[in-house]
Amino acid sequence: MTAPSIAQTDSHGRYAGSPSLLGRVLQNRYTGALVSLLLVAAFLALTQPVFLTWPNLMNIVKSNTVVFILALGATYVVIAGGIDLSVASATAASAMIFGLLLAAGLATPVAVAAAVLFGAFLGAMNGFLISYLKISFFVVTLGALSMFQSFALIINDGVSVSVFSAPGFAPVNAFVNGNVGPVPVILIFNIALLLLAGGVLRYTTFGRSLYAIGANMEAARLNGIDVKRVMFFVFVIAGLAAGLGSVVQVGRLTSASAEIDPTLLMTVLAAVLIGGTAFTGGEGGVFGTMIGVLFLGVIQNGLTLSGVSSFWQGMVSGGILIFAVWLGGMRQLLRRRRQSTGS
Question: Is position 19 within any domain?
């Protein structure tokens, strides 16, 4: 039986090569994460009366801001067809720089700029090795994970740096924990950052180049895209996100710690993939990543409200990550079958 042509229609008068409205919804990369988020939220709203209270919802936002910032940078890397395994370690290293500078009495803007630029420098190191020396991104970022973690431990002999009494900590605390009326300042910042990251992907040549490189690097090069330069700056952006995330992390903890949250990297990657960004590159977006972060944040909050041990978080995040990669593969398979049927 030959595949129907695009001009042929089915018994309902639809073009055979065109999916139904339901089919388009099911194949949308945001659908699974959004539906899952709504279902989990509805369940928690029915079983945990405190879940829908404003303080609890804002607690979810605040406690997942570091993951959100890192996930935005990771989204760029994955769209371009790479993976950065060093973001959690880079965040810890940048946090130590930030904490030591604050404790030394430096002005807040100087300490913040130093932490963010240090994160960008770490990302640039990764980008140079991957883009210009042609070393596998997996090898480079895996090695960087260990190097950055060791740097965070060495710089202060593994001792955490308390910044609570530092003169420059007050503005950081106001940024991370302050409010404008009932709305946290950090929520406003997150929305602005989301719009900026989404705008760059959608409306700039750089953003379009990421999708082209992720879809087919060689074709992108033949079409005049400077693949080396774009990939270099992709990892710089991931480093910038790590530096910025370190500022928020220190603000929330009131100290800089060289210890790395063992679930942070897993949670960041899970959020990106749950949000519909394809593991193979060339497809995705930051708005889906936002949904992924919220989904994992709601899951974590639900476990806490239900009295479930936090030890389960890693298992849940890992299982969701595996499922998200599988779902992305199935979505691509369905799309290819639809395209071949319609050809």
Answer: no
* DSSP H helices in 275-311: 286-305
Q: What was the pLDDT predicted at 307?
A: 81
**Angle CA 246–249–254, to nearest 5:** 120
Task: Give the percent of the chain with pLDDT over 90.
Answer: 65
Q: Is pLDDT of 65 > 50?
A: yes
The β-bridge relationship of strands 183-184 and 179-180 is antiparallel
In terms of Cα–Cα distance, which of 150, 136, 342, 119 is closest to 243? 119
Place of tokens 């994955």: 78
For 146-164, b/e burial (b = at least 16 CB within 10 A) is ebbbebbbebbeeeebbbe
Q: What does pTM read for this prediction? A: 0.87
Q: Spell out the alpha helix ranges (H) of 48-86.
A: 54-63, 65-79
190 or 258: whose pLDDT is higher? 190
CATH number at residue 221: 1.10.3470
Backbone conformation region of residue 159, classed left if phi is above 0, alpha if psi is from -120 to 50, else beta: beta
For residue 256, what are the β-bridge partners?
161
Residue 109 falls within a domain, yes or no?
yes
Q: Are 284 and 29 in contact (CB under 8 A)?
A: yes
Residue 12 within any structural domain of the chain: no
For the segment 71-95, the average pLDDT, to the nearest whole number, is: 96
Q: What's the domain range around 122?
A: 28-328
Non-local (6+) Cβ contacts of 197 within 8 A are: 72, 75, 76, 286
CA 262-273-66 angle, 5° bins: 45
**4, part of any domain:** no
Q: 171 or 328: whose pLDDT is higher?
A: 171
Q: List the Cα angle 294/204/283 in 5-degree steps.
A: 50
Length of the chain: 343
Domain count, the chain: 1
47, containing H or E segment: helix 31-47
